[in-house]
Design a protein that fits this description.
Blueprint (H helix, E strand, L loop, with lengths): L6 H13 L3 H23 L4 H25 L6 H15 L2 E7 L3 E8 L3 H4 L4 H18 L3 E3 L13 E7 L9
Antiparallel strand pairs: 1-2, 2-4, 3-4
Amino acid sequence: MSAAPTRVERWAYALAERAEHDARARAVLNAMVNVAFKAIAVERGRGGRRLLDLARTTSIRWGRWRAQRMRARLGVDVNDMSDMGRVQDWEDRVFGVTGHWTERGRTRAVKCETACPFARAASSAPEICTDVVHALETSTFQQLNPRYRLLPLERLLSKGSTACEFVHVLEDVAPAPTR
Protein backbone atom coordinates (compact mmCIF):
# COMPACT_ATOMS: atom_id res chain seq x y z
CA MET A 1 0.00 0.00 0.00
CA SER A 2 1.46 3.35 -0.97
CA ALA A 3 0.07 5.22 2.03
CA ALA A 4 -0.98 4.06 5.46
CA PRO A 5 -4.72 3.46 5.84
CA THR A 6 -6.72 6.38 7.15
CA ARG A 7 -8.53 6.12 10.48
CA VAL A 8 -11.83 5.48 8.67
CA GLU A 9 -10.23 2.81 6.48
CA ARG A 10 -8.70 1.09 9.53
CA TRP A 11 -12.13 1.11 11.21
CA ALA A 12 -13.81 -0.39 8.12
CA TYR A 13 -11.06 -3.02 7.74
CA ALA A 14 -11.40 -3.99 11.42
CA LEU A 15 -15.17 -4.27 10.99
CA ALA A 16 -14.66 -6.56 7.98
CA GLU A 17 -12.28 -8.79 9.91
CA ARG A 18 -14.72 -8.96 12.84
CA ALA A 19 -17.63 -9.76 10.50
CA GLU A 20 -16.18 -13.17 9.68
CA HIS A 21 -17.52 -14.54 13.00
CA ASP A 22 -19.87 -11.80 14.20
CA ALA A 23 -23.32 -11.64 12.60
CA ARG A 24 -24.01 -8.14 13.95
CA ALA A 25 -20.76 -6.79 12.52
CA ARG A 26 -21.60 -8.50 9.20
CA ALA A 27 -25.04 -6.88 9.17
CA VAL A 28 -23.53 -3.42 9.78
CA LEU A 29 -20.84 -3.97 7.15
CA ASN A 30 -23.35 -5.22 4.56
CA ALA A 31 -25.70 -2.32 5.25
CA MET A 32 -22.83 0.14 4.73
CA VAL A 33 -21.76 -1.53 1.49
CA ASN A 34 -25.34 -1.66 0.20
CA VAL A 35 -25.83 2.06 0.92
CA ALA A 36 -22.61 2.83 -0.95
CA PHE A 37 -23.56 0.59 -3.88
CA LYS A 38 -27.04 2.13 -4.10
CA ALA A 39 -25.50 5.61 -4.15
CA ILE A 40 -23.15 4.50 -6.93
CA ALA A 41 -26.10 3.09 -8.90
CA VAL A 42 -28.05 6.35 -8.55
CA GLU A 43 -25.04 8.39 -9.64
CA ARG A 44 -24.36 6.05 -12.59
CA GLY A 45 -28.01 6.38 -13.62
CA ARG A 46 -27.42 10.13 -13.86
CA GLY A 47 -24.29 9.64 -15.94
CA GLY A 48 -21.74 10.22 -13.16
CA ARG A 49 -18.90 8.01 -12.02
CA ARG A 50 -17.15 9.84 -9.18
CA LEU A 51 -18.45 7.40 -6.52
CA LEU A 52 -17.67 4.38 -8.72
CA ASP A 53 -14.10 5.61 -9.15
CA LEU A 54 -13.78 6.28 -5.41
CA ALA A 55 -15.06 2.79 -4.60
CA ARG A 56 -12.61 1.26 -7.08
CA THR A 57 -9.69 3.20 -5.59
CA THR A 58 -10.73 2.22 -2.07
CA SER A 59 -11.02 -1.43 -3.11
CA ILE A 60 -7.51 -1.38 -4.54
CA ARG A 61 -6.17 0.15 -1.32
CA TRP A 62 -7.98 -2.43 0.80
CA GLY A 63 -6.80 -5.28 -1.43
CA ARG A 64 -3.17 -4.24 -1.14
CA TRP A 65 -3.46 -3.69 2.59
CA ARG A 66 -5.20 -6.95 3.38
CA ALA A 67 -3.12 -9.25 1.16
CA GLN A 68 -0.26 -9.94 3.56
CA ARG A 69 -2.66 -10.04 6.52
CA MET A 70 -4.64 -12.76 4.72
CA ARG A 71 -1.47 -14.63 3.79
CA ALA A 72 -0.35 -14.67 7.43
CA ARG A 73 -3.81 -15.36 8.87
CA LEU A 74 -4.69 -18.16 6.46
CA GLY A 75 -1.20 -19.54 5.74
CA VAL A 76 -1.85 -19.30 2.00
CA ASP A 77 0.51 -20.95 -0.50
CA VAL A 78 0.86 -18.11 -3.03
CA ASN A 79 2.07 -20.47 -5.76
CA ASP A 80 -1.09 -22.61 -5.67
CA MET A 81 -4.28 -21.01 -6.99
CA SER A 82 -6.38 -23.65 -5.29
CA ASP A 83 -4.94 -22.64 -1.93
CA MET A 84 -5.03 -18.91 -2.71
CA GLY A 85 -8.77 -19.35 -3.24
CA ARG A 86 -9.11 -19.56 0.53
CA VAL A 87 -8.81 -15.76 0.55
CA GLN A 88 -12.04 -15.55 -1.46
CA ASP A 89 -13.61 -18.10 0.90
CA TRP A 90 -12.70 -15.82 3.83
CA GLU A 91 -14.18 -12.83 2.04
CA ASP A 92 -17.39 -14.76 1.34
CA ARG A 93 -17.72 -15.62 5.05
CA VAL A 94 -17.20 -11.96 5.93
CA PHE A 95 -19.95 -10.72 3.63
CA GLY A 96 -22.31 -13.70 3.76
CA VAL A 97 -21.85 -14.71 0.12
CA THR A 98 -22.61 -18.33 -0.74
CA GLY A 99 -21.10 -20.37 -3.51
CA HIS A 100 -18.90 -23.30 -4.44
CA TRP A 101 -15.72 -24.10 -6.32
CA THR A 102 -16.24 -25.77 -9.69
CA GLU A 103 -12.53 -26.07 -10.45
CA ARG A 104 -9.49 -26.04 -8.17
CA GLY A 105 -6.01 -26.51 -9.56
CA ARG A 106 -2.52 -25.13 -9.00
CA THR A 107 -2.80 -22.59 -11.82
CA ARG A 108 -6.56 -22.12 -12.21
CA ALA A 109 -9.54 -22.03 -9.86
CA VAL A 110 -13.17 -21.18 -10.63
CA LYS A 111 -15.73 -20.14 -8.02
CA CYS A 112 -19.45 -19.73 -8.63
CA GLU A 113 -21.22 -17.55 -6.11
CA THR A 114 -24.94 -18.24 -6.07
CA ALA A 115 -26.13 -15.67 -3.51
CA CYS A 116 -24.75 -12.23 -2.72
CA PRO A 117 -26.18 -9.57 -0.39
CA PHE A 118 -25.10 -6.87 -2.86
CA ALA A 119 -26.47 -8.28 -6.13
CA ARG A 120 -29.72 -6.33 -6.00
CA ALA A 121 -27.99 -2.99 -5.30
CA ALA A 122 -25.45 -3.70 -8.06
CA SER A 123 -28.09 -4.72 -10.61
CA SER A 124 -28.64 -1.07 -11.58
CA ALA A 125 -24.91 -0.61 -12.10
CA PRO A 126 -23.16 -3.95 -12.82
CA GLU A 127 -19.88 -2.06 -13.18
CA ILE A 128 -19.83 -2.18 -9.39
CA CYS A 129 -18.96 -5.83 -9.90
CA THR A 130 -16.96 -5.60 -13.13
CA ASP A 131 -14.86 -2.66 -11.90
CA VAL A 132 -14.93 -2.44 -8.09
CA VAL A 133 -15.11 -6.11 -7.09
CA HIS A 134 -12.72 -7.06 -9.89
CA ALA A 135 -10.24 -4.42 -8.65
CA LEU A 136 -10.46 -5.69 -5.06
CA GLU A 137 -9.78 -9.29 -6.04
CA THR A 138 -7.03 -8.38 -8.48
CA SER A 139 -5.19 -6.04 -6.11
CA THR A 140 -5.34 -8.58 -3.28
CA PHE A 141 -4.18 -11.58 -5.28
CA GLN A 142 -1.55 -9.72 -7.34
CA GLN A 143 -0.04 -8.46 -4.10
CA LEU A 144 0.31 -12.13 -3.10
CA ASN A 145 1.57 -13.30 -6.49
CA PRO A 146 2.32 -10.94 -9.41
CA ARG A 147 1.49 -13.74 -11.89
CA TYR A 148 -2.16 -13.67 -10.78
CA ARG A 149 -4.92 -12.66 -13.18
CA LEU A 150 -8.69 -12.55 -12.71
CA LEU A 151 -10.55 -12.99 -15.97
CA PRO A 152 -13.19 -10.33 -16.71
CA LEU A 153 -16.35 -10.86 -14.67
CA GLU A 154 -19.02 -11.66 -17.23
CA ARG A 155 -21.42 -14.07 -15.48
CA LEU A 156 -22.86 -11.99 -12.66
CA LEU A 157 -25.93 -12.09 -10.44
CA SER A 158 -26.13 -8.33 -10.94
CA LYS A 159 -26.52 -8.95 -14.69
CA GLY A 160 -29.25 -11.56 -14.21
CA SER A 161 -27.10 -14.71 -14.28
CA THR A 162 -27.76 -17.53 -11.82
CA ALA A 163 -24.28 -17.07 -10.33
CA CYS A 164 -21.21 -14.87 -10.35
CA GLU A 165 -18.26 -16.70 -11.86
CA PHE A 166 -14.72 -15.86 -10.76
CA VAL A 167 -11.98 -17.42 -12.89
CA HIS A 168 -8.64 -17.07 -11.09
CA VAL A 169 -5.45 -17.83 -13.01
CA LEU A 170 -1.75 -17.97 -12.19
CA GLU A 171 -0.07 -17.27 -15.49
CA ASP A 172 3.11 -19.06 -16.50
CA VAL A 173 6.11 -16.83 -16.67
CA ALA A 174 8.39 -17.84 -19.50
CA PRO A 175 12.03 -18.05 -18.50
CA ALA A 176 14.21 -15.26 -19.83
CA PRO A 177 16.07 -16.29 -23.00
CA THR A 178 19.70 -17.17 -22.42
CA ARG A 179 22.44 -15.96 -24.73
